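Weekly structure sync, notes
Attendees: PL (lead), two postdocs, one rotation student
Agenda item 3: pending single-chain targets
PL asked that the sequence for the first pending target be pasted directly into the notes so everyone works from the same version. It is reproduced below exactly as submitted, 157 residues in total.
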Amino acid sequence: MLRKLLAGLAGGVSLNLAMLLTFRLLGFGWQGGGLLLDPSLQSPKLIAVWTSLEPLPLVVAHPAPIFLGLLLFGLGHALIYAWLAPHWPPGILSRGGRMALLIFFLSFVFWEFFTPFNQLGEPVLLIGLELLFWAVIAATEGLVLATVFEAGGGLGA
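Predicted structure, written out during the meeting:
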C-alpha cells in the first residue's frame, strides 16, 4: 500500500508540474498573452472563460484546490496502474506507455473534444497543440507511476 501511495503522490506532483510547464508556461504565458489566449487565433468565448467571465476558473483564481485535486487523480491513477500493470508486458516504458495512453485517451482527448471543441468553439489547430501538451502530461505521469512501481522489482511480470 505504501508503494501505491508514493506512486500516486509522485504521479500527482508530476501531473501538476507537467501542466504548469506546458499550459501555463507555453500555452498561457506567465503573464498571460500566450498562444492559447491570442485573440487572433483563439475563440473569444474561450478567452472570456479564462480571463474575464466570473467566476474565473479555480486554477486561475485559487489554484490550491486544483493542485490537491490533481494529487487525488494521481492516487487514483496509481490504483488503476497497480490493478492493470501486472497484465502488461514488464518494463517501465512498456507499462508507463500503456498507462499514459489510458490517461490520454480516457481523460484528455475526451476533454478536448467535449469542452474546448464542443462548448467553447476553440479552433482545431489550438486543440491539436493542447493535445500535444496533454500527451506530454500523460506520458510524464505514466512514466513516473511506472518508475515508482517498477523500482526494485515492483509489480513483477
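Discussion points:
- DSSP finds six helices and no strands in the chain.
- Helices lie at 2-28, 44-51, 58-61, 64-84, 92-117, 124-150.
Action: rotation student to compare against the earlier draft before next sync.
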